[in-house]
C-alpha cells in the first residue's frame, strides 16, 4: 500500500459498537463540507466505517455507508437467540464468544469491491490487539476482510481472528485512539471522530454487557486524553467527540436512524462554530 506524503491529512475513527452509526452520521457532515483525508485509520467499528470510506471517500460514499447502517439487521449479524441464553451457552460450551462473526464477514464481503489493501482509493490502516502479548498490531496489507474482522472482534461478543499467525482481538483495547499511526505516516493534520465521548444519558449497570461496555469506555477515555496531548506537539489535531446513546445496548440496531441523525446534527453544529478547520493547515 502506498502511504500518503508527509504533511498530509489523516482521519482517525475510534470504536464504539453500534455507536458507529453516530460516527457515520458525523462523517457525512464532514464530507459534505469537502473534507477528504489522505489516510484513514480505523479501530473496532471505526475500522468498518473506515474501510468502506477508503473505497468511496466522498459524501456520496458516506451515504453508501449510511445505507448499510440503516439496513443492518441484528438477527442477521448476531442471531435470534436471546443474549442471556447465548451467554449461558458460551460459558457452558466453552465457546470463544457469544456471537459468531459470520454475519459481519458476509456484510464486508458483499459491500467491499476488493479484499486487498492495495486497491483502496485512500490508504487504509486498521488496528487490532495481539491477544497473547497485548501489543497493538497495525495492519496495512493482506486480506481486508480478515483485518477488519480482527479489529472489530470485541472480546466476549465476537471471536478472535488469526491474521499473519497472530490471534487478534478488538483494536480499541491496545490502541483505542490510533493517532500514533497517523503521526508515523507523517500526517500534519489529524481529525479524530469519536462516537461516545460524552455519555450523559441515565445509566443503570445491572448486567454484564453494560458493565463491560462502560469499562471499555472508561479505558478508552483515559487513553484518549493522553494520546491527544502527546500528539498535539507534532500535528494539528481536531477531536470531534460525539455524545453517545448510553441507553442503547451495544448490539441493539433498532435505533440506528436516530443515532445517525444525532451524529450528523452534532457534527453540523460543530462545523457551524469552527468552520472547515482542516483548510487552515492547507489540507483539503
State the gist of this model.
Helices cover 44% and strands 17% of the residues. It has 284 residues and is α/β, with parallel strands linked by helices.
Helix content: 40-55%
- The name of the CATH topology is Cytosolic phospholipase A2 catalytic domain
Order of helices and strands: EHEHHHHHEEHEEHHEHEH
Question: How many strands appear in the DSSP assignment?
Answer: 8
Low-confidence stretches: none
Rounded radius of gyration (Å)? 18 Å
The percent range for strand residues is 15-25%
First-to-last CA distance: 22 Å
Classify the secondary structure makeup into a structural class.
alpha/beta
Largest β-sheet summary:
8 strands, mixed
- What would you give as the CATH superfamily? Cytosolic phospholipase A2 catalytic domain
Tally the structural domains: 1
Mean pLDDT: 86
Note the total helix count: 11
Overall body shape: globular
Give me the CATH architecture, please.
3-Layer(aba) Sandwich
Oligomer: single chain
Report on the architecture of this protein.
With 284 residues, the chain is an alpha/beta fold. It has one domain (9-281): 3-Layer(aba) Sandwich (Cytosolic phospholipase A2 catalytic domain). It contains eleven helices and eight strands. It has helices spanning 20-32, 45-55, 59-71, 74-78, 83-93, 102-111, 144-151, 171-174, 179-184, 208-232, 256-274, and strands at residues 9-13, 39-43, 124-130, 136-139, 161-163, 166-170, 189-198, 236-243. Strands 1, 2, 3, 4, 5, 6, 7 and 8 form an eight-stranded mixed beta sheet that branches. The longest helix is centred in the C-terminal third of the chain and has 25 residues, at 208-232. The mean pLDDT is 86.
Amino acid at each position: 500500500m502506498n502511504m500518503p506524503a508527509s504533511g498530509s491529512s489523516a482521519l482517525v475513527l475510534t470504536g464504539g459498537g453500534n455507536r458507529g452509526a453516530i460516527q457515520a452520521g458525523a462523517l457525512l457532515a464532514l464530507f459534505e463540507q469537502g473534507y477528504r483525508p489522505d489516510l484513514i485509520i480505523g479501530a473496532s467499528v471505526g475500522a468498518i466505517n473506515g474501510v468502506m470510506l477508503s473505497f468511496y471517500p466522498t459524501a456520496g460514499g458516506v451515504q453508501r455507508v449510511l445505507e448499510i447502517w440503516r439496513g443492518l439487521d441484528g438477527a442477521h449479524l448476531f442471531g435470534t437467540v436471546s443474549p442471556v441464553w447465548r451467554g449461558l451457552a458460551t460459558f457452558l460450551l466453552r465457546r470463544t464468544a457469544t456471537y459468531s462473526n459470520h454475519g459481519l464477514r458476509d456484510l464486508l464481503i458483499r459491500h467491499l469491491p476488493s479484499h486487498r489493501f492495495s486497491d483502496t482509493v485512500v490508504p487504509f490502516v486498521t488496528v487490532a490487539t495481539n491477544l497473547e502479548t497485548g501489543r497493538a498490531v497495525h495492519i496495512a496489507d493482506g486480506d481486508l476482510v480478515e483485518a477488519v474482522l480482527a479489529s472489530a472482534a470485541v472480546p466476549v461478543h465476537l471471536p478472535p481472528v488469526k491474521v499473519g499467525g497472530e490471534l487478534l482481538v478488538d483494536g480499541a483495547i491496545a490502541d483505542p485512539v490510533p493517532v500514533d499511526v497517523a503521526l508515523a505516516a507523517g500526517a500534519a493534520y489529524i481529525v479524530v471522530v469519536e462516537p461516545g465521548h460524552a455519555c450523559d444519558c441515565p445509566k443503570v449497570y445491572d448486567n454484564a454487557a453494560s458493565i463491560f461496555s462502560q469499562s471499555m469506555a472508561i479505558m478508552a477515555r483515559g487513553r484518549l486524553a493522553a494520546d491527544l496531548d502527546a500528539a498535539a506537539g507534532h500535528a494539528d489535531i481536531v477531536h470531534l467527540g460525539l455524545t453517545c446513546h448510553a441507553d442503547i445496548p451495544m448490539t441493539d440496531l433498532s435505533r440506528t436512524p436516530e443515532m445517525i441523525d444525532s451524529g450528523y446534527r452534532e457534527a453540523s453544529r460543530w462545523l457551524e462554530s469552527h468552520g472547515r478547520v482542516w483548510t487552515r493547515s492547507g489540507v483539503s
